[in-house]
Write a structure and sequence with these properties.
By secondary structure, the protein is α/β, with parallel strands linked by helices. It has helices at residues 42-45, 54-64, 77-90, 101-116, 133-137, 142-145, 163-169, 193-206, 228-231, 276-288, 291-309, 332-341, 364-377; strands at 21-25, 28-31, 36-39, 93-98, 120-124, 155-158, 174-179, 182-183, 189-190, 209-213, 237-240, 251-256, 314-320, 323-328, 344-345, 347-348, 353-356. The strands form 4 sheets. Strands 4-12-11-10-7-5-6 form a 7-stranded mixed beta sheet, with helices on both faces. A 4-stranded mixed beta sheet has the order 1-2-3-15. The chain has a 4-stranded antiparallel beta sheet with strand order 13-14-17-16. A hairpin with a 4-residue loop joins strand 16 and strand 17 (353-356). The chain binds pyridoxal-5'-phosphate. Residues 100-102, 105, 128-130, 180, 184-185, 213, 215-216, 241 line the site of pyridoxal-5'-phosphate.
Length: 379
């Protein structure tokens, strides 16, 4: 880690740690002083295949040498290939590409309104969907919202895993029910299968769409390509971003084929959406996140969870795959700082929750090393 220095004039929207990283390789990062860190943050569930994974690296390089950008008034091969791959994974979907998670949520809100002719959104308390005004409006965390009100009207919040509160929130003007399969930023709180199934029924009964925000849970993060595959409820709409291009900016809205006609030319757009370099990298990510990799994520996650549960400071381990929340009996930021001093990067998801989102490709030995450090710090 570098010593405390004066940094460039960036707006202070982040409480940044005083570390500058210059290189990445697999599950490892190197700082400007040449020190190496084992990375359990993975860019907050972004670098799913690990830093500099050869497949997206080669695809991005190759595409950089061919074509960087054309307008969405035209087609490009990487964008079409990615749409086809994602459609296959979903079981029949049409894609809209953008550049971030928040943009995918904006697209989902607009899509739901256009498809249903209604304006209401039912979202969940404690959720997180992004920082743009629309995405913030459906984010159930008052502390993030209050300074920016008034926000988009028509949003009603229900409680996670409380079907009665969801039923009470849904009405004749509901365009969509929006749910994260696992609330990430809100503290790693999984939606129960029966809650999602009730959300599916409620959406069907009232003619609303069920939208799952898989910006954080998607692309293999939870041990299946989409988290909903393990939960048994198929949504109408899915949002993706973080892990899709292994670190290049991309977001996607996927709409089940039977609803896809609702968007018409002129309804929505993004200049950079579907960028050929990002899409070329993303194609290789989708191809690499195959059954064998997902099985390994599930195996390693089960072992990691078992060992995290045995740590002396552990209150609870929540989550699935490599989206794990370790609730501890002390302040997370102190533990994170101590881990950093020992060369281990760990994230947080709340005051007492460590967020563990390593590359999906992290090895057993690397996980054992990380656990040894966590054990030192949390004993
Ligand atoms: N949705 C979820 C579930 C997220 O976790 C995030 C970011 O953490 C977002 C949306 C917003 O994504 P972005 O930061 O790319 O705008």
């Amino acid at each position: 880690m570098s010593t405390t220095t004066t940094h460039a004039p960036l707006l202070e929207t982040y409480a940044r740690t005083d570390a500058t990283f210059v290189r990445g390789d697999g599950a490892w990062l190197e700082d400007a002083g040449g020190r190496r860190y084992l990375d359990l943050v993975g860019g907050i569930a972004v670098v799913g295949l690990g830093h500099l994974h050869p497949a997206p690296l080669a695809a991005a390089h190759e595409q950089l040498d061919k074509l960087w950008h054309v307008s969405n008034l035209f087609w490009t091969e990487p964008m079409e290939r990615l749409a086809a791959l994602l459609s296959e994974r979903f079981g029949g979907a049409h894609a809209f590409f953008c550049n971030s998670g928040a943009e995918s949520i904006e697209a989902a809100i607009k899509f739901a309104r256009k498809a249903t002719g209604r304006s209401g959104i039912v979202a969940l308390e404690n959720s997180f969907h992004g920082r743009t005004l629309g995405a913030l409006s459906v984010t159930g965390q008052p502390t993030k919202r209050v300074a920016f009100e008034p926000l988009v009207p028509g949003v009603t919040f229900a409680n996670l895993n409380d079907s009665a509160s969801l039923a009470a929130a849904v009405g004749d003007d509901t365009a969509c029910i929006l749910i994260e399969p696992i609330q990430g930023e809100g503290g790693i709180h999984p939606a129960r299968p029966e809650f999602l199934s009730r959300a599916r029924d409620l959406a069907d009964e009232c003619g609303a769409l069920l939208v799952l925000d898989e910006v954080q849970t998607g692309v293999g993060r939870t041990g299946s390509f989409f988290a909903w595959e393990q939960l048994g409820t198929r949504p109408d709409v899915v949002t993706l971003a973080k892990g899709l291009a292994n670190g290049l900016p991309i977001g996607a809205l996927l709409v089940a084929d039977d609803h896809a006609a609702a968007f018409e030319p002129g309804d929505h757009a993004s200049t950079f959406g579907g960028n050929p370099v990002a899409c070329a990298a993303a194609c290789t990510v989708v191809e690499t996140v195959d059954g064998a990799l997902l099985a390994e994520v599930q195996r390693k996650s089960a072992e990691l969870t078992r060992r995290l549960e045995r740590l002396p400071a552990t209150v609870e381990v929540r989550g699935c795959g490599f989206l794990l929340g370790l609730e501890i009996d002390r302040i997370a930021s102190d533990a994170i700082a101590e881990c950093l001093d020992r060369g281990l990067l760990v994230g947080s998801a709340g005051e007492r929750v460590l967020r563990i989102t390593p590359p999906l490709t992290i090895t057993d030995d690397e996980l054992s090393g990380a656990l040894a450090t966590l054990e030192e710090v949390l004993s």
